[in-house]
Write a structure and sequence with these properties.
Layout: H1 3-14, E1 23-26, E2 33-34, H2 36-49, H3 56-62, H4 67-79, H5 85-101, E3 106-107, H6 111-120, E4 124-128, H7 134-137, H8 140-143, E5 148-152, H9 165-173, E6 181-185, H10 188-196, E7 200-204, H11 211-216, E8 221-223, H12 226-240
Parallel strand pairs: 1-4, 1-6, 4-5, 6-7, 7-8
Antiparallel strand pairs: 2-3
The protein binds magnesium ion.
The site of magnesium ion has 8 residues, from loops.
Length: 242
């Protein structure tokens, strides 16, 4: 998909006459950090310890849901158990510990170039994640110094992705309109949320999820990785600010 076709498709879907980007709403896992490998490993370990059958790949598809929602769904499905909020909170803490034990998540190559390019063009950056993984949230200010003006995390949302709530909150915090915002996402549920919020949604296939699946979830444009996104940024910015 080329940039102009992507914009034409976006305008048609949203009914907007124009697009003029002032704000980027940026996901964390799989975008800022190459962290999904370790998240999926930690989820499998938690489920196995609790006797819940699962595969590692399925957790790539749940990315964006709140930890509580994933736990409640899997325990219901796998063991017929209703998990309370407090039980889910305790289990999510254990999952967070397993994640941390796997070592530091690496910074995603190319992402800092994209975000610096956006900032240089006067585009504000807001973090929008359903994650409550404090060990990662604490690293952002050092790893992405001076990039983010505000953040929306699991503490701020009730529903998590694919509900558009996290991105609608990001739009509100930025005091912008949806057609002034791009969403940068790697996960199908996150793409769905950005699309449903009415933003121009850019998917990046930084994990095993294919380009086709991100388009199917509603992405306006998909890049194979953040480096390719960085390379295309000048052309994209020219097209998105007009
Ligand atoms: Mg993500």
């Amino acid at each position: 998909m080329n940039v102009n076709d992507a914009i034409a498709g976006y305008l048609k879907f949203t009914g907007n006459k124009e697009i003029n980007i002032s704000t980027a709403l940026v996901d964390m896992d799989g975008v800022l950090y190459d962290s999904m490998k370790n998240h999926t490993r930690a989820w499998v370990k938690l489920m196995k310890k609790n006797g819940i059958k699962c595969t590692r790949d399925e957790f790539y598809l749940y990315e964006g849901m709140t930890g509580e929602a994933i736990i409640q769904m899997k325990f219901k499905e796998g063991a017929g158990k209703n998990i309370t909020h407090d039980e889910a909170t305790a289990l999510y803490k254990v999952k967070g510990r397993y994640f941390q034990e796997l070592g530091e998540a690496e910074i995603m190559p190319g992402t800092l170039d994209v975000l610096k390019g956006l900032k240089a063009a006067g585009v504000r950056c807001v973090l929008v994640t359903g994650s409550g993984q404090q060990s990662l949230l604490d690293k952002i200010d050092a790893d992405y110094e001076g990039i983010f003006d505000a953040r929306v995390t699991s503490k701020d949302v009730r529903h998590g992705k694919p509900n558009p709530e996290p991105y609608l909150k990001g739009i509100a915090i930025a005091e912008a309109r949806a057609n002034q915002c791009i969403v940068i996402e790697n996960a199908p549920l996150g793409v769905q949320a950005g699309h449903a919020a009415g933003c121009f949604t850019i998917g990046v296939t930084t994990g095993p999820i294919t380009e086709k699946e991100l388009y199917r979830a509603g992405a306006d444009l998909v890049f194979p990785n953040m480096e390719a996104f960085a390379k295309a940024l000048p052309e994209l910015l020219a097209a998105l600010k007009r």
